[in-house]
Amino acid sequence: MSISSMRKKNVHILAIPWPASGHILPMIDVAHQLALRGITITFAVTPKNLYYLNPLKSLHNKTTNIQTLVLPLPSHPSLPAGSENMQDVTQDYFLYMVEALSELYDPIMQWFKSHTCPPVAILTDAMNTTWTHPLASALGIKTIAFLSSNQYIASSIWSYYKEMKREFFNGEMLHNTIESWGLVLTSFSELHTKSFDAFKAIAKHDRVWDVSPLVPVERSGPAAMPSHEVFAWLDSCPVDKSVVYVGFGTEITLSKQQMEALGDGLEKSGVRFIWAVKKPGKGVESESGDQSVVPNGFEDRVAGRGLVIKGWVPQSMILKHRAVGSYLCHLGWGSLFDGLMGGVLLLTWPMQCDQFMNKQLIVDELGAAIPVCEGLGTIPDSVKLAQILADSLHLNRPERIQWMKIRDKALNAAQQGGSSYKALDDLATQISNLTPS
């Protein structure tokens, strides 16, 4: 079925992302596909996260299918002033961000009541469900939980939130996610069919949609280095698949000792590389001391061979460049898919939460990635790391061959008639059939 034939009555939903690029960006990609299928989406964001939506708004500038509800983030005594995104802080501030966002309950309630065509559902990141699910219930509309990580390995999902060890959860986030009217998962069913079916059994309904891989909307951000300079450097690399990209997302911050070991490994390896370094948030204190500190003199010693970028980078586009061959990452689900779509071999350093599940799936079960180390506080052996980095660029590695087979399945799922494409069609159809409260 074509997208044009999907368009029915114009139905409106409210999207509430979790403020981290690994969560906002895949929700934007889903919203783009729903908008193409005739759904109107209003994004509720705070002012500093509005820039993420600019490319999406430009794509739909001839329609009203993409709208925004910009609300100031309520202050929180434990959040540094001006922090509106998890890239501004460390994971230690997760709970405080949830609590601050939950104060948007009343402003959104008032907006809903005054709207001439209010939403029929809230598409909410699972991280927000402690307050968005009760909000949807109070408004008499549906909750559609959005999971941007590999949280549906059914045998492990119940332990995922328990391992967070925060009294705040008490299973509430998981419970509200499972109790949602529908669940949107950023994967494709062929990746692990048994787990997908088991998750539907837990949810006790079939409104579970596997929708990835998605055609990404152009990414934008507060660039640390102009994109044209990054790609000019990559274009200058004479050999395809000869560059290692190193990045740990917007939420992981490395200690000084980890940075030194990583820098030493990169230096010893002799490979070309791009190292994306997260800037520490202002006013953020850490028990581990200095963070995100590039070793003294490192950039001078690797000049020409390596590129250090401090801050936001166009990651998905870098990984698709012909010069990039492997990717050392924390194995967050979004990064995993960026690597898959880029056709680069993953070098895994899982650090928290579902990243260990992702490693179990990709490394242990599928044999499609190379393990480096594990743990948020782990300091890798720089000599071993250097060898892994150099070996990862060999094109005949069995892990790379297996990863490319999985990539072929993912691409087939995204094509018209594929499992993920049909899931998007069904999601749009079922949303269109919802009636206003």
What structural class do helix, strand and pairing data support? Answer: alpha/beta
Please count the beta strands (DSSP E, at least 2 residues each): 13
| Helix proportion | 40-55%
Looking at CATH, the homologous superfamily of the largest domain is: Glycogen Phosphorylase B
Total individual domains: 2
Give a quick summary of the entry.
This protein is of the alpha/beta class and 437 residues long. It has helices at residues 3-6, 21-36, 54-59, 94-102, 105-114, 129-139, 154-162, 172-178, 193-203, 227-235, 256-269, 298-301, 315-319, 333-342, 355-365, 382-391, 398-414, 419-432, and strands at residues 11-16, 39-45, 66-70, 121-125, 142-147, 182-185, 208-210, 243-246, 272-277, 306-310, 324-329, 345-348, 370-371.
Describe this structure in words.
The chain is an alpha/beta fold. The chain has 2 domains: 8-217 and 413-432, Rossmann fold (3-Layer(aba) Sandwich), CATH 3.40.50; 227-395, Glycogen Phosphorylase B (Rossmann fold), CATH 3.40.50.2000. The protein has 18 helices and 13 strands. The protein has a 7-stranded parallel sheet, sandwiched between helices. A 6-stranded parallel sheet has the order 10-9-8-11-12-13. It is globular and about 60 Å long. The two termini are 29 Å apart. The model is unreliable at 151-162, 164-170 and 284-288 (pLDDT under 50).
